[in-house]
From TrEMBL:
The keyword Transferase applies. Its EC number is 2.8.2.-. It is an enzyme of class 2 (transferase). Residues 49-305 form the Sulfotransferase domain. InterPro entries: P-loop_NTPase, Sulfotransferase_dom. Belongs to the sulfotransferase 1 family. Keywords: Transferase. One of its GO terms (molecular function) is sulfotransferase activity. This is Sulfotransferase. It comes from Deinandra increscens subsp. villosa.
């Protein structure tokens, strides 16, 4: 494995006081551990037909999507007063492919829990997923909000103040495609092209649509992953209860998400819940920055019909 990294392009993020080093492996940037986890998954992961993959670029709504999907698939066992989401960070409940392959294999052996999350681009997914009929849900989000969210998450992760972490530099790197799992446009395009070939297999959900109309998108999600709500459930308010349980207001105010930590040395759970708003970019972008990133995204995504 070490040999692979010696040959890869490497970038240390100056705006993060050189505390983050990314490697470019097969056209995508990520930290070494994540690439290693992805390579390991490629070599050994065997998807089960019932698996459901929750795929995303970081900061596009992964935590929210995982929470909703978890609440949907576990609703026969738990309701909004007994859900493990009340006492655990959702990342404890739904494992990441590139970090927790053992946990997923254990789920395969011991239970029929179907959810697996990943930030891997489509082209780096293990062959067993690509060859399967497993469902894939892909969440995406307004690029400018992703940049702001990523900036704050990383800055706080390495404990830098805003004065010490120049936003403009973070922005410029993002525009060059350099950020964790970047370039963003290629990440989206990989899943988008695959969804055109097999639309029944990949559902695209947009963060802003989920914000605007959570109930109908939660119903879409449940149906797509094979856990549709019955008419009786809808009448009994189960959809609304899941929307409320997983709302930013609810989750971000839980003690576990306000002051918890997964384990010593890991990130504070609160970092996954910042503002949960749509349009926060307006507080950070100059007109020039807006123009620049809009132009890049328009060019890269032209012809897809995707609007970010
Ligand atoms: P902001 O930084 O803009 O607030 P990810 O989960 O992919 O890491 O993305 C994190 C972003 O999703 C953060 O955005 C976070 O606040 C927001 N988020 C987390 N949980 C959410 C929820 N339940 N509803 C809406 N947004 C949520």
């Amino acid at each position: 494995m070490e040999d692979i990294f010696k040959r890869l392009p490497e970038h240390t993020c100056g705006w993060l006081a050189n505390k983050l080093t990314l490697y470019k492996y097969q056209d995508f940037w990520a930290v070494k551990q994540l690439h290693e986890g992805g390579i390991l998954a490629q070599q050994s992961f065997k998807a089960e037909p019932s698996d459901v993959f929750l795929c995303s670029f970081p900061k596009t709504g992964t935590t929210w999507l995982k929470s909703l999907a978890f609440a949907i698939v576990s609703r026969a066992k738990f309701d909004e007063s007994s859900s493990p989401l009340l006492t655990n960070l959702v990342h404890e409940c739904v494992p990441f492919l590139e970090r927790e392959i053992d946990k997923i294999e254990e789920n395969h052996k011991k239970s029929n829990f179907p959810l697996v999350a990943t930030h891997l681009p489509y082209s780096l997914l293990p062959e067993s997923i690509l060859a399967s009929d497993c469902k894939i849900v892909y969440i995406y989000r307004n690029t400018k909000d992703v940049i702001v969210s990523f900036y704050h998450f990383m800055r706080e992760a390495v404990k830098l103040s805003m004065e010490d972490a120049p936003f403009q530099e973070a922005f410029e790197e993002f525009c060059e495609g350099i950020c964790s799992s970047g370039p963003y446009w290629d990440h989206i395009l990989g899943y988008w092209k695959a969804s055109l070939e097999r639309p029944e297999r990949i559902l695209f959900l947009k963060y802003e649509d989920l914000k605007r109309d959570p109930a109908s998108n939660v119903k879409r999600l449940a149906e797509f992953i094979g856990y549709p709500f019955s008419a009786d459930e809808e009448k009994a308010g189960v959809v609304d209860n899941i929307v409320s349980l997983c709302s930013f207001e609810n989750l971000s105010n839980l003690e576990v998400n306000k002051s918890g930590k997964r384990k010593a040395g890991s990130l504070e759970n609160r970092l996954y819940f910042r503002k949960g708003k749509d349009g926060d970019w307006k507080n950070y972008f100059t007109d020039e920055m807006k123009e620049k990133i809009d132009k890049i995204m328009d060019e890269k995504l032209s012809g897809t019909g995707l609007v970010l």
